[in-house]
Design brief:
The chain has 12 helices and 12 strands. By secondary structure, the protein is of the alpha/beta class. Strand 6, helix 9 and strand 7 form a beta-alpha-beta unit. The protein is elongated and about 85 Å long.
Length: 342
């Protein structure tokens, strides 16, 4: 079965009784055509289902109004928040956004990046996948393609980076548990060789050190920063360390899984067990009880990332910048009151 023929500029020209050049001018807004002709051409184009193909224009000018975004886990609601504001800021500047998900697979990430570069995207925002090497950024530098790194810091000194003060985030979470009288608590989730994970752990350790305490090594349990791994890790911790009654979760997504495990164990969050997350996702306030968490303002990260990339697209020459969002503790009901502690 033959596919229907795609409407062309020639079809519009025939229907409007004008030249193909006049149609091109009318659709682009360039050239000398009357307002009446422009209105008529656009009306016919819409009626026949014409879709403008910018490929030729991109090849001719070398310019594109499309941005590529590569993230490591689009299923994490954190990225929905971040991308919402990134896309909005870029749209106002005249750019459209294509989002791709690497699933923390470096081979998939390389394939996606090659495909986006082949489409001549104007620039890239990248939240690097698990195991990303500097070979990725070498490709971008060779292609002279503007790019910004966000969320996961890979210590690329040649690129702008936008993230959160992860050390401070871990510190605030631990400080809150200590203030509630928790002296033994775990840290679960996250990949242990990422800067994000290590910085959060160092913040936790600093808060404990200031209280004259340390975190026990077997209570630090890295894993994939997902809901499923949060549930599995929390279940194992409940089984092996019944003397531990509080955890800091690498992110709120891990905390969602921890809630499920605690519930299945017959315990009640906020009474029998205390949880602090990091992210402050919209879902966190709707949990029962609502999750105490550290807000890292993903929408702000999206805005700052967009601003950084747009500066590079304008050709503004400046040394690479690091911009860290200051986190803030959001106290809710998932941490037991001091009077209910053992």
């Amino acid at each position: 079965m033959r596919r229907p023929k795609r409407p062309s500029i020639k079809d519009i020209a025939a229907a409007a009784g004008v030249s193909t050049a006049a149609v091109s001018y009318a659709l682009s807004g360039n050239g000398r055509v009357s307002a009446e002709t422009q209105k008529n051409v656009q009306k016919i184009a819409t009626a026949i289902g014409f879709i403008k193909d910018d490929t030729a224009a991109r090849l001719r000018t070398g310019k594109s109004n499309v941005l590529g975004v590569i993230v490591h886990d689009i299923s994490n609601p954190f990225f929905a928040e971040l991308l919402s504001d990134f896309e909005a800021v870029c749209y106002e500047a005249g750019y459209l956004t294509i989002v791709a998900n690497t699933k923390d697979d470096p081979i998939r990430q390389a394939t996606i990046m090659d495909a986006l570069l082949a489409q001549n995207v104007a620039g890239l925002l990248i939240s690097p996948g698990h195991g990303t090497s500097h070979a990725m950024t070498e490709v971008l530098r060779r292609r002279a393609k503007p790019y910004v790194i966000c969320v996961r810091d890979i210590a690329d000194s040649s690129a702008d980076y936008v993230g959160v003060d992860d050390h401070r985030a871990g510190y605030l979470a631990a400080q809150h548990l200590l203030a509630a009288g928790m002296e033994r608590f775990g840290f679960i989730g996250g990949y242990d060789h990422t800067n994000t994970w290590s910085d959060r752990l160092q913040g936790i350790r600093q808060a404990l050190a200031e209280a004259g305490k340390v975190i026990e090594q077997d209570l630090v349990i890295p894993c994939s920063p997902t809901r499923a791994c949060g549930e599995a890790t929390m279940s194992e911790l409940l089984r092996t360390r019944p003397d531990c009654d509080a955890v800091i979760c690498f992110n709120d997504y891990v905390a969602l899984g921890a809630y499920a495990a605690i519930h299945l164990a017959g315990k009640v969050v906020g009474i029998d067990y205390s949880i602090v997350g990091i992210d402050n996702l919209p879902q966190s306030s709707t949990l029962l009880p609502a999750l105490t968490t550290v807000d890292v303002f993903p929408r702000q990260i999206g805005q700052y990332s967009a601003q950084a990339l747009l500066r590079r697209l304008k050709g503004i020459a400046a040394p690479p910048q690091r911009r860290l969002v200051e986190p803030s503790l959001v106290v809710r009901r998932s941490v037991a009151r001091a009077s209910s502690n053992r």
